[in-house]
Amino acid sequence: MKKTRILFISTHNAIRSQIAEGYLRFRYGDRFESYSAGTQPLPIHPMTIEVMNELGIDISGQQSKEIFIFLDKNIDIAVLLSDKASYACPTFPGATNTIHQEFFNISYHEERKSSFKKEILLLRGEIITWIDENITAGGLFYYI
């Protein structure tokens, strides 16, 4: 059976899309190929790796990527995770379907390190819940 190819797109491909890529691969890798990219990629934030490790999900091998490298990859569903990504790329030309699902943007500042971790944990939970709810029968991904 052919796996459905999902590309998660955010602005920096440093937190949100990396969480989504790693979780989808870990939990549903038997049915989906999971990728992520950014419209303005930055290195993956170390705390992203840390909070995923807390769940037993190792994303340390994932890398931040630009969206253009996926143009010829026959993506089934592109999921835009931020309003900036949706503005920069309202539909992904290399995807059969595009879904807009915005998650809040967090940025790291050294002086608020402890609150940043709380925010990223909340974000992780929201992304995981959204994936779990939409991966099942009747969800957004089911029709593929």
Task: Give an overview of the whole structure.
By secondary structure, this protein is an alpha/beta fold. It has a single domain (4-135), classed as Response regulator (Rossmann fold, 3-Layer(aba) Sandwich), CATH 3.40.50.2300. It has 4 helices and 4 strands, in the order βαβαβαβα. It has helices at residues 16-28, 46-53, 83-88, 113-135; strands at 4-10, 32-38, 75-80, 95-100. It has a 4-stranded parallel beta sheet with strand order 2-1-3-4. α3 (83-88) links the parallel β3 and β4 (95-100). α1 (16-28) crosses α4 and α2 packs across α4 (113-135). The longest helix has 23 residues, at 113-135. It is globular, with a radius of gyration of 14 Å. The two termini are 12 Å apart. The model has no long low-confidence stretch (mean pLDDT 86).
- Mean model confidence by pLDDT: 86
CATH architecture classification name: 3-Layer(aba) Sandwich
Give the full name of the CATH homologous superfamily: Response regulator
Helix and strand pattern: EHEHEHEH
